[in-house]
Design a protein that fits this description.
There is one protein chain. Helix content is 70%, strand content 4%. The protein is mainly α. The chain has a two-stranded antiparallel sheet. α3 packs antiparallel against α4. It starts with 5 loop residues before the first helix and ends with a helix.
Length: 167
Amino acid sequence: MSRTKLGTVIRIAVVAGLLGWFFDSLYYKSSGSYISVGAGTGIGFALLDMFMVTWAFMIRDRLPKIVPGTQKNPTLRRAHRPLEPLLAARTAAVAMAASRTGAIGTGFYLGLIAYSLPRVTAQSALNHIVMCVPAVIGALAMVIIALWMERRCSPPSPPTEETAATS
């Protein structure tokens, strides 16, 4: 399993944004109103963000740390109660899924906002934007937390032949 690349997250968000814009335009043309976005969306993302931050800080001290030794040969310090490799892999997998989910949420709700922006003078469009902003913030925070968590739970890179030859 390889790490999630930032380009992958951006591509997912762009596609989700286009879909959000498209679905909101279809819904608006057929019903005359915008897709309903409740306050629960932003609250749900915020709760998931708090859960992920709590999880990340709980396992932070159980992961090995790279201690700077010499510039060419840093050393790896083991944790007092090391995290089981399977749990670290599960955490990285959950973080990978969360980064993609957050990218979908960020893109989709940005697409909804993008469709409403030209009509911002109407009260319904303004209400729609106000309800989408917390969802975008929560989803973007989820992406950032998940990428950080995934990087923290990935095993340190093994020494390359060059660093092994110089030590």
